[in-house]
Amino acid sequence: MPSTCSTSSTTPPTTVPEPTGERLQKVLARVGLGSRRTCDELIEAGRITVNGEVAQLGRRVDIEVDLVEVDGVPVGVRPGLVHYLLNKPRGVVTTASDTHGRPIVVELVPAEPRVFPVGRLDTDTEGLLILTNDGDLAHRLTHPSFGVDKEYLASVDGQPSRGTLRRLREGIELDDGPAKVDDFAMVDSLPGRSLVRITLHEGRKRIVRRLLDAVGFPVEALVRTDIGEVALGEQRPGSLRALTRKEVGSLYKAVGL
Question: What pLDDT, on the 0 to 100 scale, is given for residue 31?
Fold first, then answer.
């Protein structure tokens, strides 16, 4: 009986590509989380995730793509990004240039790296304005679909009633479509004027002033105090500070970055 010879093909082992990018602890140290040893300890403690997975020592990351989080808070790891909080003074224009020679917000921030205001505050409005070169974040903060809350304090002529509150919450028809507030509260009341707190996620031009005008309470003074979890606090008009890592992370989370 002839012998049979069987041949078997062997599947070559799958080659796993070597991870590319920078070592995670080096990236974390560069953005200010601490020394490399401290960053090693954060990784060992399981407090760092990359794209939702707990990172291990030696992990490499692509700073242009990977989402790095510390205790669930996103960390901006791309180089060169800056995020400023300016308390915009009254009379300053929220643009990068002005043909009428008026003071502009970019004159109140360092010249380099070049940054741009996120959204606008009209010339007569004071308060919290973010300036950044982080295009992804700026786009989402200004896009209405992401609905990040913005809080204002308004001094108005007169004393709004509960009926006024109801109208503002239900919606007012403006010349460019309906608009409404998410929250409205009386803060203080004096003869002939009131201080009210308004929260809304709209970003249309002069939206707060137009809403209050529509219900018969013209604004005398207006200050934006909060965007999401970022608060103006006691920062004086005209002053500038860098947003903290936690504040930037909260904005990233709010807009789904």
Answer: 67
